[in-house]
Amino acid sequence: MKKVMLVDDHTIVRDGIKALLTDQDDISIIGEASNGRDLLSLLKVHKPDILLLDISLPDYSGIELCEIVRRDYPGIQVLFLSMYTSEEYIFNAIKAGAQGYLPKNISQTELLLAIRTISQGSEYFSESISNIILKSYIKKAKNKEPESLNPEESLSKRELEILKLFAEGFPNPQIAEKLFISTRTVESHKNHIMQKLGLKSTVDLVKFAIRNQIIEF
Asked: ∠76-115-95 over CA atoms, to 5°?
């Protein structure tokens, strides 16, 4: 059972999310808060697996809360759900330790996919958010030299396939379906790729893929 805690200063938003998640057999909402102070009090008593967090709150910002949670409760994964989708907010969330970022206009299906993906230890960024990340890295990569490590020499053919799909924004289940392998095998390959390349996150994988022309735009 995946334990989720909601943090949003709008009651109607929290009620809407609860309505979407309540009937799921593998998800349990264990608490909700409308501000940072209430959240930090709740975390002294209840420990969710995933914190569904807004950026704009009346006291702390979501970014500040993410930094606190990831520092003091490293076992809690943070998934942002926000109307703010500018590059600045997204990258600050990633730097603060967030495992995912979604705009508030997503479907129930994608929200559930994000929660389940993150609960398995992967990151999840919606397609629109991934595009913003990609465009930013493309701009920064244009005037930089490729990484000295040759991915074709370091990675197997299968690992290169998976790296390309990751960099193009496909989540683990879709990669598994495309390659006719299990999600667990995809995650294992991803871990091996990151170890070989010395990378720490999916964002690093995307950056590496762009610089080494594994994906093109």
From this structure: 55
Domain assignment present for 108:
yes
pLDDT band at 10 (very low <50, low <70, confident <90, very high): very high
Q: Given this model, what pLDDT does residue 53 score? A: 97
Q: Which residue has the tokens 């994906």?
A: 215
Domain of residue 158, CATH code: 1.10.10.10
pTM of the entire predicted model: 0.68
Q: How many domains does the chain have?
A: 2
Q: Give the domain range for residue 194.
A: 144-211
